[in-house]
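It is time I had a proper look at our fold encoding. Can you supply me with one protein entry, sequence and fold together? It will help me judge whether the discrete encoding reads sensibly. Leave the record below and I will have a look:
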Amino acid sequence: MRIRLNGLAILGATVVLMCLPAQPAAAQAAAQAQTSYTIPEYNAFQAAAAEKDPTAKIKDLDDFVSKFPNSTLMPYVYETYYQAYYLAKDYPKALEYADKLIAMGDKAELPRRFAAIQARVQLFSSTFQAKAPDANDQLAKERDAALLGLKLLPDVKKAKPDITDDQMKQLTSGFEVTAGAADLQLKDYAAAAEAFKAGLAVNPNDAATSYRLGLAYLGMTPPQSLDGFWALARAIDQKMQGADKVKEYLRTKILAYEQPGCDAQAEAQLDELLQLAANSPDRPATYTIPSHDDLSKISQSSTIISVIADLGGGGDKAKMTWLAICGAEFPEVVGKIIDVQKTDAASVNFLVFTSASPDEMSAATMANLAVKVWIAAPPAGATTAQVTPQPDVVRLAKDDEIRFAGTLVSYDPSPFLLHWDQVKVDPSILPEKGAAKKPAPHRAAPKPPGN
């Protein structure tokens, strides 16, 4: 199996099925109750079937068909043909003759026809050319063969009662996955998803099928994103081949779905998803990941006061709010300075309290904001965006008013503290050198970002 993540394709999907035991073709031909063939026909076929060298066997079969084109032995001839071509490693011709036998319908014995279906399903991965002009026709034939195999299974069980229930389940799963793999490449994502789900109902821990199911869900219009994420997470949990690449692919899909302000938040979503999917094949109805539209609604209606309330309350509300707000820029935040911390030569950290209540603002003794202001150029390699240093902010002191624009970068849940960077302090509130201290602010609730 070769995985191409960007094209959402699986090339050469193969299902190994259990071929039903059958008598050699020559022996079954000889055992026919009604001999509708001539002695020369029978002798010619016997000679071809007895040949050990596959190349010579194919030549003998060619001679037989040229002499007896309408022989009733053709089901056995076609079977011998595809087996010989397989041994000769000419897989396209082997598939061609398996198809000829399948096309005979009821003229061919059921177990023999069913074995040909299994053979062509296995041969497909060695013959399929994704870039061939008839690639879609090839895929459609593979899908149809798998569906025919499913249709014939009940009759095969009647004809071969020694097939165990476990074997029947494996045959069912194998054909479903084969049909799904073809539908996936044909971009019939709904049909592919149904087939993969049926396969997983028998083999719930089949990592490759979980992966394909995820691709099918994500390929739908509109995408079934949450179910797709869950199926991909199951494949990763089950240690599928290339699991690291699938994990990165899933992370990019979650990012595109949510478009959170801080990419790091997608890691938390991914870790949680992998934990939950490890214990359940199906996504619980209660599990969700917010979409970009969900987050946009929160962001557009938020003020810094509502953000503090939502984050401080914890739980799912805090998670949703932070996904929506992390990395957001607020054009105006007003607060009272509780403390000033100068931790290095390039920046000052103001511990600030803000509230919608003037009385709370005046009485506050603990900060709920940590506001980092650059007073010199950020050092080389700093992650912050380019900012203009404001050396004059060092004149701000405890209990002063501060008004600024800035970007939310992180928060501490307990004790609560909301961290800011890329800050621009309003220069109009900076005290003149030697000026008296400004009174604590009494302002209305700040505007939401973007307003």
